[in-house]
Design brief:
The chain is of the alpha/beta class. The protein has one domain (3-231): Spore Coat Polysaccharide Biosynthesis Protein SpsA, Chain A (Alpha-Beta Complex), CATH 3.90.550.10. It has 7 helices and 9 strands. It has helices at 29-38, 57-65, 78-89, 106-118, 144-156, 202-215, 222-231; strands at residues 3-8, 23-24, 27-28, 45-51, 69-73, 93-98, 124-128, 140-143, 179-183. The strands form 2 sheets. It has a 7-stranded mixed sheet with strand order 5-4-1-6-8-7-9, with helices on both faces. A two-stranded antiparallel ribbon has the order 2-3. Helix 3 packs antiparallel against helix 5.
Length: 242
């Protein structure tokens, strides 16, 4: 089975512009994501799906410097960008990564990739821990069929969401795709509420930078964050003006 990893990112975020190039743990955030993906087995290509906006030129250049490919398309229509990736690579499945989610539980994500290979006839593959909501470190693998079904549903029901978030159409049709769910209980302590690890604000970048500094290494497991939070529970944080 051909599985690729696709990072969706653009530089024009209204809350935190150019966040993918911000330094996190001593490297640009997009490089940390690429390094995480390079540590997985079973992934044939790593691709950035970004826009043709000139503001994304340096983002695209940096990803190419890391020996990964870039596909560029519409800034507003994510179905077009994702469709262009499918057309170019013709994958069986796609490990779908948001560019503002720089952390992943490597072992949990590997389990999802493995499940896709072992159970190839589902539309999408996810993972759940002890709680109903999966945190951003637990990502999904979607078959090419999943994308085609969602593209079609969005075209028929554009009122459900924007093209930039076309997958939300599944709220209207929750049974439109078949789902294989991996048991993620071994990766997440059931006594700990899931934590938000996406970066949407500069303050979050400072917060997670402090965690990395405390750990002395870049976290690649949910348990790394559990460790940091327990050890840092009495620490005072002073945030600088940027």
């Amino acid at each position: 089975m051909k599985i690729i990893a696709m990072i969706t990112a653009r530089s024009t975020s209204s809350r935190f512009p150019r966040k993918h190039l911000a330094r996190l743990g001593g490297k640009p955030m997009i490089v940390q994501i690429l390094n995480n993906l390079k540590g997985l087995s079973g992934i044939s290509e790593i691709v950035l799906a970004t826009t043709t906006n000139p503001e994304d030129d340096d983002l695209a250049a940096l990803v190419k410097q890391q020996n990964c490919d870039v596909v560029r398309g519409s800034e507003d229509d994510l179905t077009q960008r994702h469709g262009a990736v499918l057309d170019k690579y013709n994958p069986d499945a796609v490990l779908n990564i948001s560019g503002d989610c720089p952390f992943m539980d490597i072992e949990a994500v590997q389990a999802v990739v493995n499940a896709c290979n072992e159970h190839p006839h589902y539309d999408t593959y996810g993972i759940r821990g002890a709680y109903s909501r999966s945190i951003e470190m637990f990502v999904s693998v979607h078959s090419s069929t999943w994308f085609l079904k969602l593209f079609d549903l969005y075209k028929k029901h554009p009122e459900a969401c924007t093209a930039d978030q076309y997958w939300l159409v599944t709220t209207l049709f929750p049974n439109a795709v078949s789902v294989y769910t991996v048991d993620g209980s071994e990766y997440m302590d059931k006594t700990v509420t899931p934590v938000k690890t996406s970066l949407d604000w500069h303050l979050e970048l400072e917060f997670y930078s402090a965690i990395i500094k405390h750990l002395g290494y870049y976290p690649i497991r949910v348990k790394d964050f559990d460790k940091a939070f327990r050890e840092m529970k009495n620490m005072d944080f002073v945030w600088s003006e940027k």
